[in-house]
Sequence to fold (478 residues):
Amino acid sequence: MTDDHPSAVARVQMAYRVRQALAHQESDVLVTVVHSGDVLSGQDESETSNGDFIVTALDLRVRLLLLVGQASDRLRAQDNLVRAQKLLWSNPDTFACVLVADDDDLTCDVVDSNEFSSRRSSSERSHAMQGPLESTLRSFLQPFALTWDAPALLSRNLVLNLPEVAALCAQQALAERHSSRSPIPERSRARRELDSRDADRAAELALRIIAGEVELSSSERYSR
Amino acid sequence: MLGTSATSGTTARCSCDCKCSNYIFWLGLDSSYIFLLVRSAVRAQANPAYVSELLAAHRCRGQRELIISRTCWSECFSSQAPLTQVMPSLTISDLLPALLEQDDAGYEFAVPSEVDVDGREVHLDSGERSIAHVLERQAQHGDCPILVLDDEDAFDALFHRVVTGHSSILPVNSLAFVRKLFDCGAFEEVDVVRICDHVRDDLGGDRQAFMSSRKRVRKQRSLDELLTHVGSTLAERPTGTPSRPALRIGGAVE
Fold:
């Protein structure tokens, strides 16, 4: 394995670990793999990297660049910073580039777009911007990813009484049938003749369908 | 039967819906792509049966026809550097069951050898022109075939012909198609990794001298994206799925 061309296995394994680490982010954080070409769209012509993963929290977009085969001391290496800078320049929709080293913790370094313009020194950088991928990314995204309290309704212990609901729905359907008009005399008569026994049968059928005892074909579904 | 032999990683997990070729049942293969498959098999020290299985995996369990032009076929077996030089034990009969060879008479007049792609003159070789011509004929019957090739320039030229209305065949790059085969289950991760390792060697080896930097950058990016996709997909599979990197990747082929 060379630095320039790490083996295919090394990249697959690193992508595997990164994806696993990102699986534990907040639920409103989306993770996708970068893909720049397809059969119908042709290939993206730009020569700079678009990164390997895109992490989206609300409308904030962060791209991950995997440094396959490189240790954490290479995170601030000039060539890697240049890659991050190019990535940010060519992807203006991206707020930050996360360089990820190929070590056990997946040590990462968040390079945001302000860094190049403000020329901050490494000592001025926040410690929250460096560290293991999972925790660093979580703390980086925390100000942006909103956490919602569960709705009060969810905390109530609601139990759905299915027989009661089925009977109620059947009665409502019966009333609806009675009130509807039809220009066809036979149909009008049939509707008028519907009574509470039909409603009971409908409720019973609904409960059996829910219990999985009866399965209606699509034609039956419409005819009934 | 796919996937059960000791020489192959290909499995019968193919979803059998031709989704990988956008539901198109005619797939043209350029000789460059067949060379890619054979070279990756050689790199993994596999035997011709593995090459046959790789090709068979493209057929979506027999639903899809793999088309090759007569010129591409002769490039594979009668040229100065045939496939048998790459894999001496390979014979015509190893490839013949999967491939449908078609007459390509008249391709010299039907498909130009030079295509102007946004001011860049791109050369198409005789193999690419002949398979494009064969597929064009297929397209006249109402089908819209896909052509898989392993050359970025040829891809650009043929795609440009589609965009400008001169052709209706859809070119697709080798690695993009391998990705689709992996997604639909026709290829296992080991197959993808072997092909990618071969492409990686090409990028870092002697053959890179013949590649423009533009081609190299695009190839490298496609390669990285494909491998990242494979790793990510494996991580998302439910626990207990047998194909995990630690188990399946990196082992010897035989």
Remarks:
- The beta strands of chain A are 29-33, 37-38, 42-43, 53-57, 60-67, 96-101, 107-112, 130-132.
- Chain A has nine helices and eight strands.
- The interface with chain B takes residues 2, 4-5, 7-9, 11-20, 23, 33-40, 42-43, 47, 49-50, 52-53, 66 of chain A (CB under 8 Å).
